[in-house]
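Limitations
The structure tokens in this dataset are predictions for the assembled complex, not deposited experimental models. Users should treat interface geometry with appropriate caution, especially where small molecules or nucleic acid strands are included. An illustrative entry is reproduced here so readers can see what is and is not provided.
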Amino acid sequence: MPEIKVTPLGAGQDVGRSCILVSIGGKNIMLDCGMHMGYNDDRRFPDFSYITQQGRLTEFLDCVIISHFHLDHCGALPYMSEMVGYDGPIYMTHPTKAICPILLEDFRKITVDKKGETNFFTSQMIKDCMKKVIPLNLHQTVQVDDELEIKAYYAGHVLGAAMVQIKVGSESVVYTGDYNMTPDRHLGAAWIDKCRPDILISESTYATTIRDSKRCRERDFLKKVHETVERGGKVLIPVFALGRAQELCILLETFWERMNMKAPIYFSTGLTEKANHYYKLFITWTNQKIRKTFVQRNMFEFKHIKAFDRSYIDNPGPMVVFATPGMLHAGLSLQIFRKWAGNEKNMIIMPGYCVQGTIGHKILNGQKKLELENRQTLEVKLQVEYMSFSAHADAKGIMQLIRMAEPRNMLLVHGEAKKMEFLKDKIEQEFSINCFMPANGETSTVATNPSVPVDISLNLLKREMALGGPLPDPKKPRTMHGTLIMKDNSLRLVSPEQALKELGLSEHQLRFTCRVQLQDAHSDSDTHIRIYTHLKSVLKGYTIQHLPDGTVMVESIVIKVSSSPEEPNTKVLLLSWSYQDEDLGSFLSTLLKKGLPAALSSM
Amino acid sequence: MKLYCLSGHPTLPCNVLKFKSTTIMLDCGLDTTSVLQFLPLPLVHSPRLSKLPGWVSKDGTINLEKVQDPTLLNVFFIELLDLSTIDVILISNYHCMMALPYITEHTGFTGSVYATEPTLQIGRLLMEELVNFMERVPKAQSATCWKNKEIQRVLPGPLKDAVEVLTWKTCYSIQDVNSALSKVQLVGYSQKVELFGAVQVTPLSSGYSLGSSNWIIQSHYEKVSYVSGSSLLTTHPQPMDQSSLKNSDVLILTGLTQMPTANPDGMLGDFCSNLAMTIRAGGNVLVPCYSSGVIYDLLECLYQFIENANLGSTPFYFLSPVANSSLEFSQIFAEWLCHNKQSKVYLPEPPFPHAELIQTNKLKHYPSIHGDFSTDFRQPCVVFTGHPSLRFGDVVHFMELWGKSSLNTIIFTEPDFSYLDALAPYQPLSMKCVYCPIDTRLNFHQVSKLLKEVQPLHVVCPEQYTQPPPSQSHRSDLMLELQPPPMPYRRCSVLGLPFRRRYERIHLLPELAKSLVPSEIKPGVSLATVSAVLQSKDNKHTLQPVPKPLPLPPSKKRKRVVEEPPEVLAPKPLLSGSVPLEAFLAVLHKHGITEVKVEETADGHILHLQAEDTLIQLEEDGTHIVCDNNEPLRTTLRDLVLRFLMKL
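Predicted assembly:
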């Protein structure tokens, strides 16, 4: 029995370093190749030795697919392709291909230049790795080889995020990457057709959350920013350069415009300008509204938001600063946080998920004293707010996607085990499908039951469809009969007659003849008529004919009556039928042996 | 499979393909050459045009007002079939969809339209522009009496010969455009779209314009390729996908170059040098053009050219109600562009250099001559504007303005209209005319190479491609020469395509497949008899195992049950092979039938089972069992015979 195997190397009952291996129809596919923000050692990357202990991965993988540019989905890519070794195709969408190398380079700089790590991938390796990338368009069917095809669907989440369908023959798997089922200020909602995959591999970051409406959260956010600015405080919003940042910028920009606010808004890092430019060039990947109006007013050209300079940190007066990175684990956002943390007038708004081990995670858990390097401690006096703006599907969204795609099995990754457990129960209950949640290195196996494609001769099919009548009768299914010819790997279903002809075989006629004696005090021709009438009343739905020469025919069975002049009342019925009418012939000979009922009128 | 040809225009095709009970319209171009037969629509009052006399027939009996009404467009002869029966319309590029509102609106059309996103967006711009051109000028008068057959007959020139003038229609409205385009479903290159489960259609990159596509229409066994407006030149769009066209049963070939003798690169060179010459001499240059397409290449060419040619201070104007949108849209379709332009987006930089021309104020765009343009206007300058027919749009104004001076030049780049006809109403004209038609579509040399490569079984093409152009009848290289010869079509042809569908895809459910017992009858050939229930849903067929009959409900009238005749079931399998005498006798013996008298006949043997008073006639291709009053024996014999035979 064919089966599909799924093994997470990362993101199994965990968030971070997404990397999932799928074996389907003899093909091996790696879905995402991410890094873990919470670790600085070997655990940062997926354990590729699972695939092979030594040597390159090229011969073990048919392709690698990257769902979007977040580092927990693509951060290990240069390591995998250049340091472990993989030369096969890597697929990602155009925006991902554009933005991914920038984030990788950023990541490399922080790790190597700031933290001084060696044995890390180089800039050249990032470039070499990106050369192996083949861009994917939405809904385009890409033939990886003769059997394996992949297709990308819009996933929302961030610019260029995609869900992918992987198909070999009639077996298929859909991997969602990270997705968002509700449109936001700059992106649309994820969508997939009813493709009925054998397995749907879904993220489950917010498996137990059902978030209140986006409008409320936005109002809350604006209110908090407004209040802080009014009382002269500073607002720090740690973000990643691309994604949420643009959504919040659009939100603040329109609010500032409407309220005629004067406090400055800054956006850190040189990436910003560039990032906004990507959004302008890839405007077809944003939501309907932005796409419709971009000619008149490009939403990514901000009037109120200006570039940040490090010297502004100590500026007096209120301000709002977007700074990278989003989890406060390094860089400018951490630097600003240290400066502003001591003042209770200030506020920090965390708009996204923070991985364990980061300062973002600590302060969100209410930690008021942070230990820094050099045994220093930092007191956290500013207000800490968490606003879930990260664009993941919540429980409702995940259920909605299942309803859209109608998978036969469900597999959860990219979430915490406890929350997954809850969602798994819910899915199994509501959809009565199996739901898997393998841990890293654990394999889930799903047996598929593919149907066998066969070429049917059009003559046979049309004949059957015509016989079946315009509407099928579910109570009396018609049995069709054909011959399957298996030759040179081809399977053809034809009518038996055609099969005989094609194979140069002659038909063998098998006939039966049976004599039945019967007492019937009528003339021979009357007996014929009496038989005809009798059979008419017994056999419904059969063709019964009384031929001019006196014989009676039921379908192709011939019934002839004769009698000897000596005993005119003893009739001999001669029944003759071919093997094709065996059931009916056997029935008739038995029936007629019992004689004809006396009450039959001679018409 | 049938092909209904609604358009005779080879580059504005409109065909309908009937294939496996789906009706598919391939493109719906709008032939605007009909407007050449009317006077231009000026934006501002033109004393010259309004003073032109009407037309009086020779004998003076018919007196016609002059017709200043270039709003009549040649909508293809659409009575050939009922438009409401069309299931889908496939669009190959934005030039080939301009008649869409005529088909989707007010005809009962209920299907859907498939096009790529750039085709939809730019097609929308071109339609909006057309509507805007037509509607912003109040029509002087609209004449209809010339359409009368009697009058048309005596009219001069091309009007007399124009066929089907009654199908010439006035332009659609913006509401029609919006409603028509709301029926468009977006598709990406290589996306497989299922139509009713019966047919799969796939757009492929055709390399001609942004989002332009060829289409594959196929089932599991048959493949039709529709090639329309393709280009192998390296311009801005994604290169043409040729390999996917391989193994077609039928290839419908339309939209070849209209200028088979003009080399686009050479024309581009002429364009630049003529432009520079005129500007240096202090004249203005007018370029009548469409608002999307070749203009992007012209601007890119000028971007490189103007610095070298010292034209840095010359203003370039692009006037169109959709100029801004066209320039903006061109920058956001990175996925649909050639590799070079794609990699620019990764930097991130706009893919087309006209962004820089706009930023440095070298190129300015305006919705029309009114408003800002009139204050910014500086001469000498270069103006790109439409419509290339010179019958409507801002270009009419510039013709009136600049036509009198020999310093000025008009450079034609669009190949759709004869430039002499286009200029006719403006004669006498002093301005220089340069004809540099740039048509990047396939030429005959390229297409024959392509066909050699993809090897379709049959080629269908407009009849114009099967003979050299009338003006160059000796150029046998300007036609398609193929073996077997292409099937030509003309307007209103209905072609039966040489197809015999013999097979259809069906799926055996795994339970059924497992129950089959194949037997090898020849080396490498196995047979299995299949008895199954056919299920057909959404044009997909599956075979399921025959359900086991339900146990009969306990009946009170037991006797009646026995008499129940057998259900009308599928017939028994056919038999093949023969029954060998010796082996059969041995088997009979085994079953206790020992008294057998064998008699030889001409065709075989007759076995007389004496104890049972039964005859069995064994022949090479038949067996006959004559057995009276002994049903158990008969069935035993039957089964023994069947042992030796193959069931089909």
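Some entries come with short summary sentences. For this one: Residues 557-562 of chain B have pLDDT under 50 and may be disordered.
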